[in-house]
Amino acid sequence: MVALFDSPARSRRARLADHHDAEALAWAWRQACEGAGLCRSVDTPTGATISTPKVTGVHLGPPTSLVVALTPGQLPGDVRAAAHRIAPHLGAVALRIEPRGMTHVRVTLLDVDPLAGTLPMLPGPGVLLGRDEGGTCLRAEPGDLPHAIVQGVTRSGKSVWTYGLLAQLAHRPDVLVAGCDPTGLLWRPFAGSRHAPWQSSGLADLAAHEAVLRRVVDEMDARIRDLPADRDTLAVTPARPLLVVVLEEYPGLLRVLDAAKSRDDDPGKRVRALVSRLLAEGAKAGVRVVILAQRAEASVVGAFERAMCSLRISFRCDNRASVDLLHPGADPAVADAHTAALPGIALLSRPGHDLTRIRAPFLGGYAEYVAAIAGAAA
Ligand SMILES: Nc1ncnc2c1ncn2[C@@H]1O[C@H](COP(=O)(O)OP(=O)(O)OP(=O)(O)O)[C@@H](O)[C@H]1O
Ligand SMILES: [Mg+2]
């Protein structure tokens, strides 16, 4: 029998009904785990025995939650990965899975998507990248950020995520915001700031983009040359700030550069080569690249570039194949569902963690971005 937690003072009849509900839930859990493949089949002389993570307690709530004992070798992440298949069979929109001790998890039944509603720019250490379904904020110190690639169809939330990132970085004396923005919007509020000489905007002057990237590469080379004999990575300081190189609408920039190609001049090839060098050598020299694209397809971001970007974020994608580009091996059901994601909801991969569904922080519209940068970037 399943233990029923926290039943308040209730009549005997009501308590009996609660026990029925708890047993029914535990049974539904077992069935759903079997269907979702969260089970182990052991052959015995009398036939196969299926074992699923066992419900050891139920809290009828609201919110309703189960305490589940993991089977040997199982991790909370395994339950999390199957949660979207199990949730509907428990009458929930989604499940929140939290470790409980070393061998159990608490499974909370959610009746609204935990990522519904906007996420304000919550204060805290480092930069806020987003919040996961369990309510945990994903944060990183700027120096710990890897190279990143962000994709998503139009109006899915790439620029808004970037506004949030830059608003959190621009005021830091140990960060310089650099890069190329063919749309001409991203760098407008930086005009006149210490960051501006490292930025190029618009499509009127194509050579400016190459010049900015060349300047960052030259700085990277100088930094690597000057590395002390006993160090293999540069310590980021206000004197040697982290250079965050944002390539907004990178495919669009490459398209225009490729169109300008002539028999003896290939600016697109040179820009690709500069970006490849930043990706390959920048991490140890305090340079981080953030590539933004509607689709991280091979003609834009080759396998090498993709491999260098270990932070990968996909806002809504057109199809499963697009999700696979940045998150190979993602559960097809998760990838399919992501084709209908709301603006600001993304799948995020980072080293050492499972694929995570997140809500990106929302600083506000363009006006709020301009105000945040104008107040921060001196
Ligand atoms: N994190 C978020 N929270 C709430 N709403 C968001 C969020 N991100 C984006 N939106 C909404 O979606 C709209 C489009 O977002 P955004 O401009 O970032 O799209 P985009 O991916 O950059 O598109 P494009 O490729 O056309 O530039 C925003 O104006 C905003 O209304
Ligand atoms: Mg945009």
Descriptive key words:
binds adenosine-5'-triphosphate; Threonyl-tRNA Synthetase, Chain A, domain 2; 5-stranded mixed beta sheet; single chain; 10-stranded mixed beta sheet; elongated; 378 residues; alpha/beta; Rossmann fold; 10 helices; binds magnesium ion
Helix fraction? Answer: 25-40%
Report the biggest beta sheet as strand number plus sense, adding barrel if it closes.
10 strands, mixed
Ligand identities: adenosine-5'-triphosphate, magnesium ion
Number of domains: 2
Give me the Rg, rounded.
25 Å
Which strand order do you get reading across the main beta sheet? 9-8-17-16-15-10-14-13-11-12
The poorly predicted ranges are none
Shape field? elongated
C-alpha end-to-end distance: 65 Å
Query: What is the CATH class name of the largest domain?
Result: Alpha Beta
Strand elements, count: 17
Q: Label the structural class.
A: alpha/beta
Q: Give the CATH H-level superfamily of the largest domain.
A: P-loop containing nucleotide triphosphate hydrolases
CATH architecture annotation name of the largest domain: 3-Layer(aba) Sandwich
What does this entry look like structurally?
The protein is an alpha/beta fold. It has 2 domains: 3-110, Threonyl-tRNA Synthetase, Chain A, domain 2, CATH 3.30.980.40; 127-376, P-loop containing nucleotide triphosphate hydrolases (Rossmann fold, 3-Layer(aba) Sandwich), CATH 3.40.50. 33% of the residues lie in helices and 23% in strands. The protein has 10 helices and 17 strands. The protein has helices at residues 12-36, 76-86, 158-169, 206-225, 250-259, 267-281, 303-308, 320-326, 332-337, 366-376, and strands at residues 3-5, 40-44, 47-51, 54-59, 65-69, 94-100, 104-110, 127-132, 137-140, 148-151, 175-181, 199-201, 242-247, 287-293, 311-314, 345-349, 356-359. A 10-stranded mixed β-sheet has the order 9-8-17-16-15-10-14-13-11-12. The protein has a 5-stranded mixed β-sheet with strand order 1-4-5-7-6, with helices on one face. The protein has a two-stranded antiparallel ribbon with strand order 2-3. Strand 2 and strand 3 form a beta hairpin. Helix 3 runs parallel beside helix 10 (366-376), helix 4 (206-225) packs parallel to helix 6 and helix 5 packs antiparallel against helix 6. The radius of gyration is 25 Å and the shape is elongated. The model has no long low-confidence stretch (mean pLDDT 92). Bound molecules: adenosine-5'-triphosphate and magnesium ion. Magnesium ion binds at residues 158-159.
